[in-house]
Amino acid sequence: MKTLLILVGKTTGKHFQAGISDYIGRISHYMPFELITIPQLKNTKSMAEEQQKQAEGELILHQIQPADTVVLMDEHGRELRSVEFARWLQQKQQNTRRLVFVIGGPYGFSADVYSRANELLSLSKMTFSHQMVRLIMTEQLYRACTIIRGEPYHHE
Q1: What is the residue-averaged pLDDT of the chain?
Q2: Residue-level pLDDT at 124
Q3: Phi-psi region of 26 (alpha: psi -120 to 50; beta: other; left: phi over 0)
Q4: Which of 4, 41, 77, 120 is the most buried (most CB within 10 A)?
C-alpha cells in the first residue's frame, strides 16, 4: 500500500520542516510514502472563504485517483489513540492500494472534498496550527508503523 499526505500550502517553519523530513525518512523504511504540497493560492484576500475552499478543493481532488481511500484530517473526525490508529492503519494495509491523508487549508475543505472522503479523522479536540498538524501527523504515522512492527518507539 502506498500512503500519501496531501498538504495545502508550504511548510514554513524550519523546525517543522526538519521534523517532518525526519519522520518522512523514517516512514519510508516501513512503507511507500509521498508528501504532496499543493501551492498556496495567490490573491486570497480578494476571495471569499467559500471561493478559497472551492479552489483548494479542486487542486486536492486533482491529486486523488478514483480507487484511493481518502481520509481528511478534520476537527469533526473520529479520534483514535495511537494504538487504535496503528490497528486502523494495519487494516487499511490489507485492502487499500493508496491511502491518502489530506490536511486542508485555513478554512477547511470544500463540499466536493468532503463528498469524496471515505473517512474523517481528528488528531485532538484541541486546535493546532496547520504547520504543527503536519508534524504531528507524520509522527503519528511513524509511531503507527513501529507499533505494527512491535518496535520499542511507543510505550504503553
Answers
A1: 95
A2: 95
A3: alpha
A4: 4
